[in-house]
User: Fold these one by one.
Assistant:
Number 1:
Amino acid sequence: MFTSFALWTVFCKTIMEDVTGAQLIAEALKAQDVEYMFGIVGVPIIEVAMAAQASGIKYLGMRNEQAACYAASAVGYLTGRPGACLVVSGPGLIHALGGMANANMNCWPVIVIGGSSDQNQETTGAFQEFPQVEACRLYSKFSARPSSLEMIPSVVEKAVRTSMYGRPGAVYVDISGDMVNAKVNRSKVREVLCCPHPPVSMADNVAITEALTVIKGAKRPLLIIGKGAAHGRAEGPLRELVEGCGLPFLPTPMGKGVLPDDHPNCVAAARSRALQADVVLLLGARLNWILHFGLPPRFDPHVKVIQVDLCAEEIGNNVRPAAALLGDIGAVVKQLLEQVRKDRWKYPADTEWWSMLKEKMAANSKMTKALALQVTTPMNYYQVFHHVAQLLPRDCVIVSEGANTMDIGRTMLHNYLPRHRLDAGTFGTMGVGLGFAIAAAAVQRGQNTGRRVVCIEGDSAFGFSGMEVETMCRYKLPVIIIVVNNNGIYSGLDAETWGTMEEMGDLTTVAPPVSLLPDARYDEVMTAFGGRGFLVRTEAELQSSLQLSLQDWERPSLLNVLIDPSSDRKQQEFPWLTRSNL
Ligand SMILES: Cc1ncc(C[n+]2csc(CCOP(=O)(O)OP(=O)(O)O)c2C)c(N)n1
Ligand SMILES: *[C@@H]1O[C@H](CO)[C@@H](O)[C@H](O)[C@H]1NC(C)=O
Ligand SMILES: [Mg+2]
């Protein structure tokens, strides 16, 4: 009796009381199932962060808005609902633009909430005044300021919905300083329900029939699995299609793990060869620079592409498809499956194409193994990744960025689960790693998965958001950062050669632009905040420090792995097209 009376009182109070703009924003985000907010507070949005916490949203204070926005977008990719990024006016918002652009390029949902100067000071040179709604247009799918407090819940709902529906991306909601603390009677604010997951669309049946005719006529078929398939959670039907039809598949960098990298049909180890397919079933991947635009010499000039994409505007980019299947990846794959099951069609296992692919894979892995099994100090990239790969748990989330570090790591570190690889992505952005790792660690902890987040960084890549190690220490996120340290961007100088530079003249005129300080102690950045830091020079040190880090669930670790600054990768087949300067 008493309990229900107490609840009744609370209920009356909540509908009668006045609410602030800050509360409305926070409650609207919560109502839209936004679980995480990353940001940096200041005037005018401190109250928004506090209201978010009061509404039950987890707030993570970051050290730069760029990293905050990277983190919020990674939550969007990992959970399917956007994370929120909260920023102050002017420079705070400008810092977040990098994260919005990256999210838009990757097609990941994220909602940015920006405070702005008071409306009655617009055009007067107000503190941090900037045309924020206009500025965000180029970096988002939707950018608006609610016209009144009453409109906040519906504008937030529209923003969240827009970030998820169609091709996902970044959205921006502006809130002026005066709106943050202004009040309105709650009874005047219309309640807006949580927007459901995007409705599922399916391909035209005629196009499905066309696609099947092309697939069945293929001599050298290949499935390419992109991160659109990962985002669309298409792993179940995709596995059935690959296994049921006996087709070889190649994942794009973040398509890795949709099907496990050690699946017998995965031909990633013969990538160049596989791209010579005569029929490509393109699933949630774009024919952009990562896939060499679908053009020769990397692709067969007569390749028939069956393009499966959620986004109509993507169809036909660079290559006109032989069949265009517009729709949700999982749903379209199910449509294809239904047809191939009817005819019991299967690509034979004893074709020339399969033997060619298998031969090439064996040769490539032999070459990689030889590099990995060298025992030299300083180590090379292959040695480092070989030992890391042996110790990483199968279910860990791998975050990776750098040039050589990311490229070589991508081939040597396997993913076994979908959405467990986060990297520089479509936009090739350096500096994303620590924000992504923080987001992934928060999500894993929130879902109680017991899964580890391992962040493998080039020394240059690490520097972009290095101060976020403090964030990891503050929230006790047990991320393991491995800095593969070659003293520079792509390559560097050893300490001795660097020493001679100073004798050659002013360092700003003689030091190679790729150089970074030799043997920099990135491990001490981590120990400065109470995390574990390790300086690693040998294979034994690498193994023991990684094992110790994996046992510690209380705090983050950083392994500063000093490698040969001139260590490079194996010869590529098309060196003039290998954009290692990604
Ligand atoms: C935001 C941004 N700035 C600059 C670049 C250019 N860039 C490409 S890779 C890279 C860093 C590569 O060095 P490192 O992370 O140390 O990896 P390594 O190749 O040395 O292993 C840079 C600066 C970029 N991709 N993104
Ligand atoms: C809000 O509006 C309701 C309904 O009109 C009214 O009963 C209540 O007193 C108002 N609350 C305040 C704080 O003005
Ligand atoms: Mg480097």
Note: The longest helix spans residues 352-372.
Number 2:
Amino acid sequence: MNRVYNFAAGPSMLPEEALERAASEMLSYKGTGMSVMEMSHRSKGYIEIFDHTVSLLRELMGISDDYEVLLLQGGATGQFAAVPMNLLKTSADYVDSGNFAHGALVEAKKYGNINVVASSRDDNYTYIPEIDPDKLNKNADYFYITTNNTIFGTRYTSIPDTGDVPLVADMSSNILSEPMDVNKFGVIFAGAQKNIGPAGVTVVIVRKDLLGRANPNTPKVFDWTKMAENGSMLNTPTTYSIYMAGLCLEWLKKEGGVRVIHMRNQIKAKLLYDYLDESKLFKGTAHRDHRSIMNVTFRTDDPDTDAAFVKLATENGILNIKGHRLVGGMRASIYNAMSVEGVQKLISVMKQFEQERV
Ligand SMILES: *Cc1c(COP(=O)(O)O)cnc(C)c1O
């Protein structure tokens, strides 16, 4: 079977091993005579699958018992609203580092007083804005960042110290890509479809002392406290996505876990950025100091040349390399499941294209 190199930003490629395992268990999961899709979410068999996914996530990320791990719905976008609904009493500080960060703060403004303490919006989010400690509100209910900016290809290289103010992070596009000290965060959330598994499930990791603060108008499916009390099952969870996420996490564990995958991710990113830095045709669009190792954004000086490259790449089995419309050019999303060979293949096609053009 011909598998392509899929550089999509999300939903994105999944480990082949996980897909094969799912295929082999499709019609009858462990001799039950039914697919996981057909199992009751209250059944013993399914609860085991659910608990297994959560415990793998805890193990791989080093999440302590001080935190609840919730598997919810509504995507990261749902959490843009859930965060203020669960935490906002008076005001919160936000860093505007990309389109998703901006979307989150626009959503949060519906619920209260939001201060934008730093922004790179005027430069089309090509860098992570500096945070001036004097601007921080020591009484803020929380401080909000987006650790990796999927569209623009930037990331935080160090996590800001917010003191006693709980740090809330949208980690949708770099969760599990590098070791992160969960203890630095009050809340971490992520849509699954970039680096966890298929779309559908949303991971929310919340420090237990932050529970019990939700606005009474919060819909119960978005109320972290109520969901924590009910094992994320106040309603039917995304049963199959959670099962698939478990298979992907098993793969990650077998590969050696986050530390090992991080080394591989650094190798992949370095190969690509080194080539971009020496290329006379292609150039990276993100500020060097803040380059993402998950989403590599680049372009030529000419949109028609970009389009011609995308076409050549597609002919060579390299798919979904076209950049987001807000940036143009190209974007190679090289999440955990992308192999080093996939990146090498991309670079060889870029070199071929460059030789023909320059
Ligand atoms: C993809 C993405 C989102 C949106 O996720 P949905 O699950 O589609 O709501 C939000 N934030 C970041 C950083 C993303 O990469």
Note: The longest helix spans residues 257-278.
Number 3:
Amino acid sequence: MSQGFRTRNLLISHPNMNKLALYVSFLHLLFAHAVAQDSPPPYIAPDYILLNCGSSAANSTSLDDRNWEGDSHSKFSPHNIQTISNSSTPTEQIPSVAQVPYMTARIFPNNFTYSFPVSSGLKFVRLYFYPAKYADVDKSKSFFSVTANDFTLLRNFSAFLTMLTLEPPAAVVVKEFIVPVLRTQYCLNITFISLDSYAFINGIEVVSIPNNLYMDNTNGTGIKFVGFDTIFYTFDGTTTLETMYRLNVGGKDVSGVEDTGMFRTWVDDSPYVLIDNFGITAYDLPNDTIQYTTETPSYTAPEIVYKTFRSMGINATANLNSNLTWNFTVDAGFNYLFRLHFCETLQEVVYLNDRVFEIFINNQTAERDADVILWSGSRGIPVYRDYIVLIPNGNRRKLDLLLALRPNVVSKPQYEDALLNGVEIFKLNRSDGSFGGLNLDGLVVPTSPEGNEKLTERKRTSLRIMAVIIVISASVIILGFISFRVSKKAKILGSRKVGDSNCLPLPSHLCRHFSFAEIEAATKNFDDGLIIGVGGFGNVYKGYVEDGSSTVAIKRLKSGSQQGAHEFTTEISTLSKLRHRHIVSLIGYCDEDREMILVYEYMNCGTLRDHLYSTDNPPLTWKRRLDICIGAALGLEYLHTGANHLIIHRDVKTTNILLNENWVAKVSDFGLCKIGPISVSITHISTAVKGSFGYLDPEYFKRQQLTEKSDVYSFGVVLCEILCARPPLVRTALKKQVNLAEWFRECYHEDKLDEIIDPCLKNGIKPECLKKFVEVTMSCLLHDRSKRPSMKDVVGGLQFALQLQGSSCDSPNFPELDD
Ligand SMILES: *[C@@H]1O[C@H](CO)[C@@H](O)[C@H](O)[C@H]1NC(C)=O
Ligand SMILES: *[C@@H]1O[C@H](CO)[C@@H](O)[C@H](O)[C@H]1NC(C)=O
Ligand SMILES: *[C@@H]1O[C@H](CO)[C@@H](O)[C@H](O)[C@H]1NC(C)=O
Ligand SMILES: *[C@@H]1O[C@H](CO)[C@@H](O)[C@H](O)[C@H]1NC(C)=O
Ligand SMILES: *[C@@H]1O[C@H](CO)[C@@H](O)[C@H](O)[C@H]1NC(C)=O
Ligand SMILES: *[C@@H]1O[C@H](CO)[C@@H](O)[C@H](O)[C@H]1NC(C)=O
Ligand SMILES: *[C@@H]1O[C@H](CO)[C@@H](O)[C@H](O)[C@H]1NC(C)=O
Ligand SMILES: *[C@@H]1O[C@H](CO)[C@@H](O)[C@H](O)[C@H]1NC(C)=O
Ligand SMILES: *[C@@H]1O[C@H](CO)[C@@H](O)[C@H](O)[C@H]1NC(C)=O
Ligand SMILES: *[C@@H]1O[C@H](CO)[C@@H](O)[C@H](O)[C@H]1NC(C)=O
Ligand SMILES: *[C@@H]1O[C@H](CO)[C@@H](O)[C@H](O)[C@H]1NC(C)=O
Ligand SMILES: *[C@@H]1O[C@H](CO)[C@@H](O)[C@H](O)[C@H]1NC(C)=O
């Protein structure tokens, strides 16, 4: 028994779930004993493989009594294993590190694949690393990638550097993934790709996962996307997960052999709880057994997870003024799957509304009224809830993410309290099938001076690389560059002095340099009365230049904002070259005195939106609307294909389509959004989704990446508005809390479009024209990006719609196409 416990402490040192107690408490022993006695039988995994890499013993037993097969003569190893790899033992042996599987390693100078014949379905893949010195190879030089079938589990991974970041310090690194094996694959190939000098591995574990345990789509709605009321996430069977955290909330560490047959480790949550309200934990475990159900089968989590909990405590006054909060560090630029486990076990909590609480993840509401009795039906019945959380890329690569619970006061529950029993947090792979590269943020510098130097150097390199990436992504997205050229260019820009226009590639023949005095004169010293727009980047003023003979729009970027002058100038040099009838022209700029000011042509008739909603302006005729949307589409087509590089607007909406005195539509504000945050910020998304009828491409939520087809989607939303604009649609959509595109789609499928078309247009649209227009709109709004038309096709479709309107109509209101 005690041997098993020792094992647990040694075997399971997951890098991110490593807050393991290093002692064995007597109580703990009792707990484990009790659990073992009345737990339901564990899940029997059809595939269960433990491979002791570098070992030639047929069979070795780890401290937790599991049998590991040596890989030297294994059927999972390639037959030429002896010639393409070496087995080795670490020269440094730390007593606390278990013999099996860590005291043997397989070393690969080149690519190497283990092939595990397994059934289809999800598998846990656990990789065990002990980054020690093996023979004459340098542990700090080992960088490698690991793939599992089509997924990249680890990219440019250094077990040694990862080990240095472990908190609290540990000598071994365990990585856990959930990998799908398709019906057509029959095999799980785990490949080690050595990058610099060599790759190595100490142990590999493959364990089947019951169908429907994770990433299950049987709940047809999909998984709630935290912070977005109308967006749900569905797994399509092509996603891998990396385990970040698995906590037995309010309880003790649970070792793999105490799990329900999948050998997951669950750790005590106390290191993650914010100290200002530590809550209380179970002091007396319930005698009743946990009653598992078909929704929450017994393998979901061990009984001990559901029997122990953390709640806020008995002082309702105190509870109402605080949150019970956990703090997790995660990498930015990924989606995360949160699974929260609940089970009411207290005698007092019996009825609905006894204990109701709110759940926040990353400051966003995940549940307004979590009532575990409502969810489960009764005390003693466990339930879990899944959530997807989007952590966009930002200035920082690692973020602290808070999970907070607090009583729901609105429902006036019997107990003003909150409850949690378990948490699992997984990172979803990116669209390229990977989990990102080495992340050295927060690296602990090693004690040896030699390693120290190397590390600082590495860290510096990685910071430099990061700086380059930031410069690039902050400027207009230019695809088609090979990365080498990009970084070269960025370095050149980066080495120049800010504000020194001579050095900058600013095209004075294309765009004018204004002095700050000129700008001040033009805006009457930034007179508030001249403000025509307010945005996150600063204000837009109407201004008069050339002795008042010429009207311009002047955008003054907030000083002190994070965007550097480099990005500003890069921006200008790109934007000033864009010249198109349907693009708002950049006339000039001012970069004196750390000011960042852009001067644009002035558009007399304002934004398209000003003519669609809540306005005293007379309604636009259908013909004019068609002209406007064709113009805007031509502008976007130019950005996508006409300029030297692909330019993605990223913020297409009716307020960014401006109209001049002749009703010519021009696209504005491309570029400025790129001077701002590096990627779309969370507030930007929220505004886009909630405030502006959801212009944002739904695929963004999956891929966290905007493409030119995202502009096509947003343009589809603009088309909806052009057709339906005045209030009925918008009001209904807002009331129903659906986004405009979804609402439009629904009405289309229910054949109710005529109910939502702008009443001002009712009799003016020819049916053929309407049919074509709606067809174009629906195609832009397709969920699958690849099926959406290009802007060129959109232009073609709209021009055709205009012709249909013109040719079948003899009304003078609808003259023929003039372009
Ligand atoms: C390893 O040993 C266990 C028990 O000692 C035995 O059940 C198992 O069959 C052995 N496996 C192999 C591959 O020899
Ligand atoms: C195995 O180790 C020996 C001695 O260090 C070395 O000469 C040989 O190249 C290695 N073989 C492989 C495949 O790494
Ligand atoms: C190793 O695998 C990578 C990725 O599959 C491939 O690009 C590379 O050429 C391979 N190297 C060798 C030596 O086969
Ligand atoms: C891997 O990462 C290290 C340190 O971050 C870097 O020096 C090296 O160039 C990277 N290798 C590859 C192939 O990306
Ligand atoms: C795994 O590797 C084997 C041998 O190289 C190959 O035949 C098989 O197609 C691979 N399977 C997958 C799913 O990649
Ligand atoms: C299905 O998912 C929705 C949305 O997250 C949730 O409200 C509902 O409770 C779920 N149903 C079940 C049975 O889990
Ligand atoms: C569990 O059983 C013991 C002895 O039978 C009893 O003293 C204790 O109060 C019970 N605990 C609970 C939570 O019911
Ligand atoms: C409950 O908490 C409040 C506010 O934190 C405190 O003032 C009060 O003394 C507490 N009551 C008890 C009984 O501890
Ligand atoms: C969360 O944890 C990180 C790192 O452990 C720490 O820097 C940060 O201050 C914590 N956040 C809060 C709100 O306590
Ligand atoms: C509790 O958390 C929510 C969401 O993060 C936050 O809005 C609220 O201010 C917090 N309350 C307290 C008392 O910290
Ligand atoms: C979340 O709320 C905390 C305090 O309630 C605040 O410090 C933090 O900046 C917020 N984080 C985000 C991403 O809004
Ligand atoms: C994960 O990777 C696969 C394979 O590259 C890809 O098809 C899938 O879309 C990715 N999942 C997510 C959520 O991006």
Note: The mean pLDDT is 79.
